[in-house]
Amino acid sequence: MAARRSIGIVINGVTGRMGYRQHLVRSLLAIREQGGVALPGGGHIWPEPILVGRDPDKLAAIAARHGLTEWTTDLDAALARPDVEVYFDAQVTQRREKAIRHAISAGKHVYTEKPLAESSAAAEELAELARAAGVRNGVVQDKLFLPGLRKLKRLIDGGFFGRILSVRGEFGYWVFEGDWQAAQRPSWNYRLADGGGIVMDMFPHWNYLLEELFGAVRGVQATIATHIETRVDERGDEYTADADDAAYAIFELEGGVIAQINSSWAVRVNRDELVEFQVDGVLGSAVAGLRGCKIQHRATTPKPVWNPDLPLSGRSFRDEWTEVPDNDEFDNGFKVQWEAFLRHVVAGEAFHWDFASGTRGVRLAEAGLRSAREGRRIELGNA
Ligand SMILES: NC(=O)c1ccc[n+]([C@@H]2O[C@H](COP(=O)([O-])OP(=O)(O)OC[C@H]3O[C@@H](n4cnc5c(N)ncnc54)[C@H](O)[C@@H]3O)[C@@H](O)[C@H]2O)c1
């Protein structure tokens, strides 16, 4: 039987939405169910999760539910274990920097949810500390692995668009205020003092998506809003929501593509998916979502003529697009990136979704907030 290479992974913030469902259950435990991560030279990487959090009852319950035995509320004790090689952080953003500093000084490789830190200065410092300590590092960039966006990437790589002109992104849905229906997102997201705000949450995603698909972001102009100013928290108490819950932004990309992305937790969905990107190129266009991707080629582009006096006579522009076939099996995006990170740690495979990339994401969020505050376009020197 091929060798099993066990690797201890501290998973901090495992009681949270992302920590539990996407990272523990859908990634690390799913990897165990499939028999580990295959190594290029034979054998398998076998993740051994060590659950870390603040509430012992919740940790014990999660461990019991999944047949795990290792959990603790003492992060430093977990980091002192010689069998622990990787620290993973899915805590609220505000607690991340301090914990990652501890992990790096304990000599552990670090993988983390985005945003890497609350400020670009802090993110840069973490990148530098990790480099100096020689620990491998990575930041979650799950959207790159969504089926719809992988199909979009395939179209780009295949030259479908010709010269790409623009990208229009629409992200968002109605997040309930919490008064007559419970909010479906944690309340800290809506308080500035707790590290909330849609710009800090979503611009790191937009940065790596734009950078990998269309070109690095060179300039941003954003208008932000706090549309819903009062919300009700998990305990039923009313609070002032002072963090931005919508951002309307234009990104100028290297190579000339213009991307315009609306991000909002105060919008009702009239789209096929919760996020959609329309890409227009000289030879064709595409609309990609989480799962689907449809195209319209230059040769099948209809020729509408503007005449408000004429009805469209049953015609639907949406029906004149063609679905792109999967042609592949798409696994959970979080899991795919975990597998790549573990191969990076154990087998030294290349992995470019690192702290440097995570830092660029935080820098874009900061620039977006500054643009909104100062009412002007901000240039980024992301070289
Ligand atoms: N990649 C993505 O698509 C994606 C999506 C949502 C959130 N995130 C990121 O994941 C991280 C966690 O977000 P989440 O939605 O899972 O949040 P959550 O509130 O569900 O979980 C937060 C976790 O941090 C812990 N925590 C520590 N200190 C806390 C405090 N003072 N208040 C509240 N919780 C505290 C909680 O116990 C919990 O385990 C954030 O950094 C967020 O930006 C990423």
From TrEMBL:
Coiled coil: none annotated. Pfam families: GFO_IDH_MocA, GFO_IDH_MocA_C3. Gene3D superfamilies: Dihydrodipicolinate Reductase, domain 2 (3.30.360.10), NAD(P)-binding Rossmann-like Domain (3.40.50.720). Residues 150-286 form the GFO/IDH/MocA-like oxidoreductase domain. Residues 51-137 form the Gfo/Idh/MocA-like oxidoreductase N-terminal domain. GO terms for molecular function: nucleotide binding; oxidoreductase activity. InterPro entries: Gfo/Idh/MocA-like_OxRdtase_N, Gfo/Idh/MocA_oxidrdct_glycsds, GFO_IDH_MocA-like_dom, NAD(P)-bd_dom_sf. Keywords: Oxidoreductase. This is Predicted dehydrogenase. It comes from Actinoplanes regularis.
